[in-house]
Amino acid sequence: MRREVGASLLGALVVLSCSADRASVALTASAEVSASTRITELTRRFHVPLSPVPTVALAGGARAARVALPLVASEEVTVEDETSHLSVRFALEHVQDARIEVADGMALYRGALDGADVLHRVHAEGTEDFVVFDSRPAHEELTYSVDVSRVPGLRLVSNTLEFLDATGTPLLRVAPPYVVDASGQRHGAKLAVSGCAYDTSPAGPWGRTVTNPDAERCTVRVTWAGNITYPAIVDPAWVTTGSLASSRRFATASVLPSGKVLIAGGDSVSGGTSAELFDLAANGGAGTFAATGSMATGRAEHTASVLVSGKVLVSGGAYNIAATASAELYDPGTGTFTATGSMAVKRSIHTASVLPSGKVLVTGGVDPVSGDTRARSCTTLPETRGWGRSPARAPWPLPGPSTQRVSWPRAGCSSRGAATASSASPARRSSIPLAMLARAPSPPRGR
After folding, report:
1. Which CATH number is 295's domain given?
2. pLDDT (average), residues 270-280
3. Residues 323 and 424 in one domain
4. What pLDDT score does 380 carry?
5. Rounded to two decimals, what is the model's pTM?
């Protein structure tokens, strides 16, 4: 008989029910205190939220999961999407038969992997699978055996493993893993899959032909390296797809012509290079997120502008304090970012406006390292030509007398840092807010 503990949320607690003998998972008071002490110690050491997630109403596209934990660490964990019932089972390899200990809403398998503790933080959308190493292991990797016999399609893109239904909708995922070291620093870890087939196209998966695993089981490896100070904790998460795969700050969200949303960059464990797509129409209108291609440059506090072509121009931003002048174009058709020309100056916290001509006006911003502000500097990007300083005169007339032209004082910005367009006549000179440019006709072809 398969021995497991079914885990579901009630308030802020994980409530357990055993499929075999409920008494077999009961803990003595001293064992529960011991487990609670260990969990509290790990919480303080690694500055990560090891406490259980309180139950809240799942808003927007967030999807509920059912998680079943085994009584011993060597057996399989089950994660199932409650709406579609698509499920995966996985087991950490090379572990001993450490029995489950439950305290403070957490499940602890003490010393299960060569002395390393294994914990599960079960929440409404799945489980985080923490492995705690007190010292550097002989091999910096975790190996999982994953049962994909109930999964129509697999997709591995941008360090995210997605489990898809027959329509190409991702319903479960292994989120990009990371390591937290003794100093509290987060380091990205790498996902790899072997033993089965999977899709690697970064284009949105919805409606595309899925890649069947062609096997009942896969091997999933999490590896890491670098300047990591031990003790350290590794965190792969097995969750549903109604929320972002990576937490982000200062990211951008752009509505594409297809109705999908591109979320790009931001402060995250991915180093600010990753991006995701959201399709509200997927899964009966509940919506799901999917990984897409990554940027070449990490960036937060940047801008993203949807161009007439449907591509997205991502410009500027900063990561690890340093600002960048670089820019990239995202192509929804291929799901990839391509480098384009750089701006004249580095900027973050700036603005970017798509003009009626199809050009993009970028203005303002700061460089956090130098403290340089660019509030009086403007740059334009014709979609097919690259960056340039704002022209002294616009190449097409505003509505009105044929002698009326648009000029950009002080390289395109006013003395107060607000971009304006100016019209001049022999009698007077006045300033026109940039919003008025929306009334301007498109420039003639070939000009």
Report:
1. 2.120.10.80
2. 91
3. no
4. 62
5. 0.79
First to last CA, the chain: 77
Using CA atoms, how far residue 367 sits from 153, 298, 350, 379, in Å, is 44, 15, 10, 15
| CB 211, CB 197: distance < 8 Å | yes
Verify that 284 and 188 share a domain, yes or no: no
Distances 355 to 280, 284, 360, 380, 438 between C-alpha atoms, Å: 28, 36, 6, 10, 7
Residue type, 170: P
Task: Provide the residue range defining the domain that includes 440.
Answer: 396-447
Among residues 235, 267, 297, the one where a domain terminates is 235
Residues 201 and 249 in one domain: no
pLDDT digits (tens, 9 = 90+) for 352-407: 999 999 999 999 998 877 766 654 456 666 555 566 555 443 333 333 333 323 22
- Specify whether 43 is located in the same domain as 136: yes
Query: What whole-number distance in Å separates Cα of residue 344 and Cα of residue 326?
Result: 9
Are the C-beta atoms of residues 236 and 178 closer than 8 Å to each other? no
If asked whether residues 61 and 114 sit together in one domain, one would say yes
The verdict on 284 and 406 lying in the same domain is: no
Q: 81 and 87 in contact (C-beta within 8 Å)?
A: yes
388-396: long-range contacts at Cβ-Cβ below 8 A with a sequence spacing of 24 or more? 389/344, 390/361, 394/421, 394/440, 395/443, 395/447, 396/357, 396/440, 396/441, 396/442, 396/443, 396/444, 396/447
Which tokens belong to 5?
């503990």
Number of domains in the chain: 3
- Annotate 304-331 with DSSP letters as a single string: EEE-TTS-EEEE--EETTEEB--EEEEE
Q: Which of 235, 259, 285 is the last residue of a domain?
A: 235
Closest CA relative to residue 222, chosen from 141, 114, 129: 141
Strands 318-319 and 312-315: unpaired
In three-state secondary structure terms, 294 is coil
